[in-house]
Amino acid sequence: MKKTLLFYFLIITNVVGFSQSTSLTVFDRILFYDGYAALVNQPVPTGIIRHRNDLYAKKLTSSQLASFGDAMTLNVTINADCDNYDRIGNVNIALVPKNATTYNPNTVQRIELGRFITPFMNKNIPPNLVPYTFNIDNMTLIFKDPALNAIYDFWMELEVFGVPYAAQTQIEGCAGINSVFYGTVEIVSNIYPPVTSGNVLLPLNFKNNLNNYQAGASDAIGQTVRTIAFNLPNDVVGASFYLINSNHGSNTNGEEYNRRYHYVYFDDMTNPILTYRPGEATCEPYRVFNTQGNGIYSASPRTNAQWQSFSNWCPGAKIPLRKINLGTVSGGSHTFRLSVPTAVFVGGEGYFPVSLYLQAINTALGLDPISKVEYSIYPNPTTDRITLETSDAIKKITISNGLGQVVYEGNSKQISISNFSNGLYLMKVAFENGCNVTEKIIKK
Description:
This protein has 444 residues and is mostly beta strands. Helix content is 6%, strand content 45%. It contains five helices and 27 strands. The strands form six sheets. Strands 3-4-9-6-7-16 form a six-stranded antiparallel sheet. Strands 1-11-19-13-17 form a five-stranded antiparallel sheet. A five-stranded antiparallel sheet has the order 15-14-18-12-20, with no helix packed on it.
């Protein structure tokens, strides 16, 4: 797994005067193409990069960043072209080395600001567009940071994956067309009196798929659990996780159609800090945008109970950005875990794209790096061998029994426990970057 460079940074905002509003259009009806096809060579507006048919990027200039205030709204509009199915879209920020004219999205730090689901739209039937609005007030602390601005440029990304094949035969005017959606992104900002505070940004996960059938997608094959360990060099206050996850695919009766309980843990892996089931009370408010009759909307309205029985998202709605308040968090090693224990992936299909970052105020300001690790321990329970899968360097592994007695000490990623008595053990892993994690393992 790839290590990520992470940062502390100090934010000093030098805006004075009365409240005023500014508006910036980053993308104006940018046209997306078949996500499965080869990269198209159609021209793009000046200053915009087409990374893929489903991903565009544009650098925010220093003057644009200076115009942003403390209250920020992200407005996204998706116009129908030749895709009449529900698709996942999202808006991101990429931290790109200063003055670079392009970048590889897979090798830079990125955070997801908002995610949405397109409706089943017929471009010939109004309304043929759908608006989404996201509150991104917390981003002013990131955009205004002088230390980060000295090293990086902020590039805004709009990503919408679309496929035109069904529309080519079902929508008038789409035969032979491989364009799928138009996308517009606007930032509206209200400027208030200046704020000075220390800010910590810790990207932890960017749209990594979570499922139970792919190596590396979860802690272990057969589970739907993702564990992320990270280290804070100093105490922070006002800390919050920002979490986005949504379910997709799995064919009939799969994860796209079932509301599973999600459990979020922080350090204490026995008591969740957040439990939720995805999905809204009803999808009826979005019926107006679903103008193509090939989707999940029947000819007549459904009751709330009917919607909640099978759909965990509404085509035309945005996916919640869940802010999880942590308060004061001490320096040292910490662990985040997302678990969806009852998830079922029919036929080895489907996935949960998960994005996560931590933001807080640093009480001991500086530019010290924050470390994190990603790892898996499997099989667990086990009969003879435990494997620790990680790309991060290991300093020491210690396994203790229920009496606190150390029964193993070393740094091997594969440990034989065939001679252990059946029961519960604690496995402590110390990584070279300073992270320390503790996991329960069961010998049976």
